[in-house]
Specification:
Blueprint: H1 4-18, H2 23-30, H3 34-41, H4 49-59, H5 63-86
Helix pairs in contact: 1-5, 2-4
């Protein structure tokens, strides 16, 4: 099962770490306890919209950007979960599949077209 609070926490943590900021700095700026912010980042607590707004303000990140990144993570997690559930690619076809690595490209810009029975989708 994909937990939205865990994906949201992962994205918040990455945003904070990209800025080289500590939990203490962000919690102070957002006026939320350090322990609670830590629990949100670890996906153990559901953050209210008010709390998310305060954290986004503290990180100087638009909530829409945060939610877009969470949405992208969710889409990848759903694809990975779906691929694991179906495992529809025959073993004899797998060696014919190439590996593609795309970095630095927004997910909405990537389109993969191939016969459905010959595609493996794995999200790391």
């Amino acid at each position: 099962m994909i937990l939205l609070r865990r994906l949201l926490g992962d994205v918040l943590r990455r945003q904070r770490q990209r800025q080289g900021r500590t939990l203490r700095e962000v919690s102070s700026s957002a006026r939320v306890s350090l322990g609670y912010l830590s629990e949100v980042e670890r996906g153990q607590k559901e953050a209210s919209s008010e709390l998310l707004s305060a954290i986004c303000d503290a990180l100087d990140v638009r909530m829409s950007e945060l939610m877009r990144e969470v949405s992208d993570e969710l889409a990848l997690a759903e694809l990975a979960q779906s691929a694991q559930a179906t495992q529809s690619v025959p073993t004899s076809v797998r060696p014919m599949l190439g590996t593609v690595s795309v970095t630095g490209v927004p997910p909405e810009r990537v389109t993969i077209k191939a016969p459905a029975e010959a595609v493996d989708v794995v999200a790391a």
